[in-house]
């Protein structure tokens, strides 16, 4: 089995990669720098020395770099069993790309959209191909109408984060409809002790610090992703497109989560990357 994972250098992503490696899964890792890629490979191989690891460098904010990595992967691989979209970040300030789009949305949603759509044929070629995206309960305060707005100076950091996580969830719902053989799932990992919010200041920094005693470990946070990646397919019958927490399907809490909005985000994302 071959699993592609983004953002595997720390936290939930690292535990996910390491756990799969220890189960005998070969890894494709996409990281932002060569230094992070090398350090992550070395750390995994210390615990799983027989694991085959290929690493690629791409910044998910740079869609051209993502396209190049996807092409390089397609030249070497014909099948990918799992794609795990783990990378993402919590913006501590609102920043925009040169063409006016909020940066965390570009990285967290559009970067993964480019990657996954470029590699769909490889996942469909797997016996039980699966695509898993980390979302969050923060999807509840996301809004579809904000997602492709340019230079939205009224946007707050928590709104941006909610939009990102809602987009992750809607992308999975749209994929589930379009996939022929493979399946797709979104995950709320829990409130995990990671680098999330480490650059926050003021009220949000205080809030994160107050929550720390109640946060779960990265090992606990990775459990649902690992369940979806490794459980027998019979445990997931008719659940493609679903949102999972604590290794169980969960209901969502946002009126924007509709089949129509899932298709809308798909079409707008296709249009966006087609213009690049």
Keyword list:
single chain, 44% helix, 9 helices, alpha/beta
Compile the SSE list and pairings:
Elements: E1 2-6, H1 11-22, E2 26-31, H2 34-47, E3 53-57, H3 63-76, E4 82-85, H4 103-124, E5 130-134, H5 157-178, E6 183-188, H6 202-211, H7 218-221, H8 223-230, E7 243-245, E8 248-249, H9 259-274
Parallel strand pairs: 1-2, 1-4, 2-3, 4-5, 5-6, 6-7
Antiparallel strand pairs: 7-8
Helix pairs in contact: 1-2, 3-4, 4-5, 5-9
- Determine the mean pLDDT: 90
- Major pleated sheet: 8 strands, mixed
Helical/strand content category = alpha/beta
Write the CATH fold name: Rossmann fold
Strand content: 5-15%
- Widest sheet, order of strands: 3-2-1-4-5-6-7-8
H and E order: EHEHEHEHEHEHHHEEH
Helical residues, percent: 40-55%
- What is the CATH class? Alpha Beta
Number of strands: 8
Named at the architecture level, the CATH assignment is 3-Layer(aba) Sandwich
Say which CATH homologous superfamily is assigned.
NAD(P)-binding Rossmann-like Domain
Compact summary:
The protein has 276 residues and is of the alpha/beta class. The protein contains nine helices and eight strands.
């Amino acid at each position: 089995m071959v699993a592609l994972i983004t953002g595997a250098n720390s936290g939930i992503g690292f535990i996910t990669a390491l756990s799969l490696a220890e189960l005998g899964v070969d890894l494709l890792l996409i990281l932002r720098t060569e230094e992070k890629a090398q350090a992550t490979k070395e750390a995994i191989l210390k615990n799983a020395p027989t694991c085959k690891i290929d690493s690629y460098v791409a910044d998910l904010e740079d869609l051209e770099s993502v396209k190049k990595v996807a092409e390089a992967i397609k030249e070497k691989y014909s099948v990918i069993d799992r794609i795990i979209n783990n990378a993402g970040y919590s913006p501590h300030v609102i920043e925009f790309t040169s063409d006016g789009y909020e940066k965390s949305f570009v990285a967290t949603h559009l970067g993964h959209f480019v990657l996954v759509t470029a590699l769909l044929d490889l996942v469909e070629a797997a016996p039980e191909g699966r695509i898993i995206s980390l979302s969050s309960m923060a999807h509840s305060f996301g809004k579809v109408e904000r997602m492709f707005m340019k230079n939205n100076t009224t946007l707050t950091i928590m709104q941006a984060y909610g939009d990102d996580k809602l987009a992750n969830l809607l992308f999975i719902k749209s994929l589930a409809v379009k996939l022929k053989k493979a399946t797709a799932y979104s995950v709320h990992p829990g409130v995990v002790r990671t680098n999330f919010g480490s650059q926050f200041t003021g009220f949000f920094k205080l809030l994160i610090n107050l929550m720390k005693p109640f946060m779960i470990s990265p090992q606990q946070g990775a459990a649902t992703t690992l369940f979806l990646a490794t459980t027998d397919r019979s445990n997931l019958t008719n659940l493609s497109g679903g949102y999972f927490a604590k290794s169980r399907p969960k209901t969502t809490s946002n009126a924007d989560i509709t089949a129509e909005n899932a298709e809308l985000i798909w079409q707008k994302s296709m249009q966006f990357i087609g213009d690049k």
